[in-house]
Write a structure and sequence with these properties.
The protein is α+β, with helices and mostly antiparallel strands and 363 residues long. It contains nine helices and 21 strands. The strands form four sheets. It has a six-stranded mixed sheet with strand order 7-8-9-3-10-11, with helices on both faces. It has a five-stranded antiparallel sheet with strand order 2-1-4-5-6, covered by helices on one side. Helix 2 packs parallel to helix 4 and helix 4 runs parallel beside helix 5. The chain is globular.
């Protein structure tokens, strides 16, 4: 467990956060620019000293203001990867990776150079100079260098922020492989919701220097705190399920939602056993009975557990479906015509096409 309790006041900065992150696993610090994400990373790494609080990893205290404990950054064995990679431009890729090995000060679990090269797909880059690398390639080399220093914790401070969307799409699968194969807990900083959904199994929401919520992506997807950060278009429920079948010719996959099934686009799920699906609230329709003769592929039985007004003319319904909860945004007029009420049985209708680009491998 990573325990983080920080109070930092410096100039215009007023940061006060308190959260715990499970280890191993990937915890994402998610929030808008200026929320305090990078400051939290720097404090965990020991690059700045807070005025108050405590930082401890799996029982080892790195900082405790009350006990006057402050372990220097070089002794924390926290590997930090920054936005700009910070590689040595005069060295080739192999030498940059070897620098990570030379920084090892204590014995511990480690990946060998060959393993890291294979894990991050660096075989063809080893002899190249850093100046000739793309932004995505630089990010992968920086990850490899940090891994070879045998970190107890990886701190990834928006490592993909400096590269464009196509390059981010190239690097994300390597981050997934790193998550799945390396037993190193990670703190991943991002303000890109897609990255968070693909990588994180725990989420901490930051806003204006405060940790406003924490939990699994599925739990927080139902919260107003997350909706306020991602906006109405992206707000919706996150479902983790097992992939039951693939239909390559139709480009569709079937995943489990309890004892029911959901049809989703196959893109991005070809080699996965689990899937994480974001179902936007605006894409969900409700019906009081099962409908026939529709092109909608998904009709799931559920029960309304909450109805909340969304001014000026909307209603947000929370529907429990086989142990999972989905959100549906409907007009108040529609809710009145259907006489929607808490406890009512309904059918949730979702077009498979509306989930395109929102299906992710689950951690």
């Amino acid at each position: 467990m990573l325990e983080v309790r920080l109070a930092i006041r410096r100039g215009d900065l007023d940061l006060e956060v308190d959260f715990q992150a499970p280890t191993p696993g990937v915890t994402a610090l998610f929030g808008a620019s200026g929320a305090g994400k990078t400051t939290v990373v720097h404090a965990i790494a020991g690059l700045i000293r807070p005025q108050a609080g405590r930082v401890a990893l799996d029982g080892t205290t790195w900082f405790d203001a009350e006990r006057s404990v402050f372990v220097p950054a070089e002794r924390r064995r926290a590997g930090v990867v920054f936005q700009d990679a910070r590689l040595f431009p005069h060295l080739d890729v192999r030498a940059n990776l070897r620098y990570g090995e030379r920084r090892v000060r204590e014995p511990g679990p480690a990946l060998a150079l060959d393993e890291v090269v294979q894990l991050l797909g660096l075989e063809s880059l080893l002899a190249r100079r850093v100046r000739g690398l793309s932004g995505g390639e630089r990010s992968r080399v920086a990850l490899g260098r940090a891994l070879l220093a045998r970190p107890r914790l990886l701190l990834l401070d928006e490592p993909l922020a400096a590269i464009d969307a196509p390059r981010r799409a190239e690097v994300l699968p390597y981050l997934e492989r790193l998550r799945d194969r390396a037993a190193v807990p990670m703190i991943y900083v991002s303000h890109q919701y897609e990255e968070v959904l693909r990588l994180a199994d725990h989420l901490v929401l930051l806003a204006a220097g405060r940790a406003i919520a924490s939990g699994s992506p599925a739990e927080l997807s139902l919260s107003s705190a997350l909706a306020g950060l991602v906006g109405e278009d992206a707000a919706g429920a996150v479902i983790d399920g097992r992939i039951l079948a693939r239909n390559d010719s139709a480009g569709l996959a079937t995943i489990s939602v309890g004892e029911q099934q959901l049809t989703v686009p196959l893109a991005g799920l070809a080699d996965a056993r689990q899937a994480r699906i974001l179902i936007p609230a605006r894409e969900v329709m409700l019906a009081t009975h099962r409908s026939e003769g529709l092109s909608v592929r998904n009709q799931l039985r559920g029960q309304i557990v909450a109805l909340n007004d969304e001014p000026p003319h909307g209603v947000l319904a929370t529907v429990e479906v086989s142990g999972s909860r989905l959100l549906a945004r409907v007009t108040r007029a529609a809710a009145n015509e259907l006489a929607l009420a808490v406890g009512q049985s309904v059918y949730v209708l979702v077009k498979a096409e509306s989930l395109r680009g929102r299906s992710y491998k689950a951690p």
